[in-house]
Amino acid sequence: MEPAAGGFSEEQFREACAELQQPALAGADWQLLVETLGISIYRLLDQQTGLYEYKVFGILEDCPPALLADVYLDLDYRKQWDQYVKEVYEKECNGETVVYWEVKYPFPMSNRDYVYLRQRQELEMEGQKIYVILAQSTSMPQFAEKPGVIRVKQYKQSLAIESDGKKGSKVFMYYFDNPGGQIPSWLINWAAKNGVPNFLKDMAKACHRYLKKT
């Protein structure tokens, strides 16, 4: 299938929609890592890198889908509520939206930065509007690597959001991130078990504040 604008195919958007409605965990060694705060996180070992792919399913109450998608994409607002953002902005390059993101890492580790394509689509499936956001690392000469910051060159993420039938959102997220360098196993485990649920909680709070702003 031909890629859509932004380097993603229509099939990739539809796959994220389908997984939101019917999780695809069979046929592979997906393991339930943690269930907390209405969020379930599964992981699958990537044999090539020795790292894990993750799938996240859950409900964010009192966060309507359109609002949640807007908050997720608002990079200026992200700087206000995400304590791990060092620098983030987007730029149009060759007709595509490219995001630059530097993430703070605890001392003595180096910060990581990302350069990735990102695109949002709104689809309808079985009468439901679904917001899908896809991201994947890319290489662009406009974004030179910084001394002392490790460039993450393998990153991909899918996010699909629909109404939970009440005032909240049903969410599916897939991500794979190869941060490079030496990352202690405790930090990777902490990020998966605690970092993701905490991030979703923070995003829910950010939605409520965003609503008051607007």
Automatic annotation (TrEMBL):
Any one GO CC term of the record: cytosol
Ranges for domain START: 30-212
UniProt-listed Pfam families: START
Classification via InterPro entries: STARD2_START (IPR041950), START-like_dom_sf (IPR023393), START_lipid-bd_dom (IPR002913), START_lipid_transfer (IPR051213)
SMART domains membership: START
Alphabetically ordered keywords of this record: Acetylation, Cytoplasm, Lipid transport, Lipid-binding, Phosphoprotein, Transport
Record GO terms (molecular function): phosphatidylcholine binding; phosphatidylcholine transporter activity
Domain of life of the source: Eukaryota
Subunit structure: Interacts with ACOT13/THEM2.
Protein name per Swiss-Prot or TrEMBL: Phosphatidylcholine transfer protein
Native organism taxonomy: Eukaryota, Metazoa, Chordata, Craniata, Vertebrata
Gene: PCTP
